[in-house]
Specification:
binds magnesium ion; alpha/beta; 6-stranded parallel beta sheet; binds SN-glycerol-3-phosphate; 32% helix; 357 residues; 12 helices
Length: 357
Amino acid sequence: PSSTFSSRQFHSLSNPASFGIAFDIDGVLLRGNIPIGSSPQALKSLYDDSGTLKVPYVFLTNGGGVPESKRAKELARLLDVNILPLQVIQGHTPFKQLMKRFEDELVVAVGKGEPAEVMSEYGFKNVLSIDEYASYFDNIDPLAQYKKWTDKQDVNQNSKSKHVAFSNDPCSQRAQAVFVVSDSVDWSRDIQVLCDILRTGGLPGKEIAHQPPLFFANDDLAYQALFPSERLGMGAFRIALESVFNAIHPAALKYTSYGKPNPFVFKNAETVLMQVLQSSQDNNQVDGREQFFKTLYMIGDNPAVDIKGARQAGNPWFSILTRTGVFKGKENYDECPADLVVDTVEEAVDYILSKEC
Ligand code: G3P
Ligand code: MG
């Protein structure tokens, strides 16, 4: 990447703290790992010729599965700009606020990628991925033998107990919470094992007990990805788990979902945008005066998530809906209209820069 952060980076703006941008990732900048159109160029226009950043921006995604530091590197490679880990806000990023509550407890992390690494980085000391957790319970998944893709060796030999400080067997130690960090890879195994954990107070195979807390990183029904029509997201998995759980258990499933459109996500993005701005300003530029954003732009592809969230967050958020992802309509989205609808993220960035600079 040719772009860098420096103390001079905001000098070209007359009022550097007046605006910032939050970019959704899937369906706006990328589909899978493929940049959409000229999205890397759109990001590059936020840097000056020497590659220093002119405009504070963050990635505000409901996706995840890898630690923020690693995601920053991946995004930098795919989008060809320098990115600070601070600029990456994922669906599961707020889970770190729950660390103190579950610091030493056994917790189970679900989803694609490296869910246990994510939770370890947040400070959780006894976390097992659901792959590893399930491997302790013989025959917990009666369909395992038909799942040709399962690489048991990897789970058993390479990654076992990397993220646990306890010596007890999970078969006799209660799992105290479940975190769905990213999209479930094997719905049938995960629904089975989660029902086991949740019905028994965290001791699969034992008697019914109080449900441990369950947290989802987002509640997206669908996301864009590479296929022409949207794919089922974590919200769809939540519905499946909830329907099955409620059919086999007397008390309804209790859970908490994070991610957009929750207003606290946008509040936090505002704080992070200010940190991005301040982390790269000269001390004498900051000079003790209070700084604030006049406008924060949310550029997203999903009306029910990105646009609804920005609208609910209110001032200073301004929502821009692209046609490159979940939303493919001609006009605005009726149920939750955006402040502006554009074809692409390039168009959105052009609009912002021509209005602000
Ligand atoms: O799994 C990712 C998806 O649910 C949403 O990603 O970047 O569009 O918020 P994003
Ligand atoms: Mg999206």
